[in-house]
Amino acid sequence: MWSPEPEAIRELRSLINRPNAIEKDIQREKNRLEKSKISQASVLAITSIERMLDSLSLEKKCLEDLIKQHIDQDPKLKRNKALLETIPGVGEVIARHMCLIIGSRTFKSASQCAAFLGLIPLQHESGSSVKERPRLSKAGDATVRAKLYMAAVVSIRHNPDIKRQYERLLKNGKSKLSAIGAAMRKLVHICFGVLKHQTPYQVQTLKN
């Protein structure tokens, strides 16, 4: 049965979307600045771009402060963020995105959450028998998925559970890209479990 998002989640979504949009604006201005310098544009034009970059960076900083204040003022969001940050590889950015995603709807399982984010591998077939390498479905938010990718790369180095899985998959012949995709799913599963059980991260047993 559908139910509306909690007000705190709706507000968090609005706040998080703005820095994501500003990041794209900043990158566009950086690209313009680089092209302007290469083409030896006028000093006035270059100065205008630099002013815009300063303004966008300042606005992004203000929004980051508003997001932190919003989370700190809501007991549930504050606790969930703190729990997520006990997971090696999960920093402030991923923690607040997972607070938003998991808090925005009722997922029946961690796998359902991973599917929502577009992290389920799809097997493609060419013709009747030739199979291509599985790839992620990419059905979810590409911005969040990109951040999860970077978090997974960090987790492979610092999270014992994800590192163990990654090394096992490579040993079994999986490609690095496939193993990183599995690390992204594993990270989402861990985040889901931590919030579901409201307990800090603990290294899982070697039975995995």
Topology:
Blueprint lengths: L6 H32 L4 H31 L1 H10 L7 H13 L5 H7 L4 E2 L2 E2 L3 E2 L3 E2 L5 H17 L1 H12 L4 H22 L11
Antiparallel strand pairs: 1-4, 2-3
Helix pairs in contact: 1-2, 1-4, 3-4, 5-8, 6-7, 6-8, 7-8
Structure overview:
With 208 residues, the chain is mainly alpha-helical. It folds into 2 domains: 67 residues; 112 residues, no CATH class. 69% of the residues lie in helices and 4% in strands. It contains 8 helices and 4 strands. Strands 1-4 form a two-stranded antiparallel ribbon. A two-stranded antiparallel ribbon has the order 2-3. Strand 2 and strand 3 form a beta hairpin. Helix 1 crosses helix 4, helix 3 packs across helix 4 and helix 7 runs antiparallel to helix 8. The longest helix has 32 residues. It is globular, with a radius of gyration of 20 Å. The two termini are 34 Å apart. About 3% of the residues have low confidence.
Structural class: mainly alpha
Bulk shape: globular
Order of helices and strands: HHHHHEEEEHHH
The share of residues in extended strands comes to: under 5%
How many strands appear in the DSSP assignment? 4
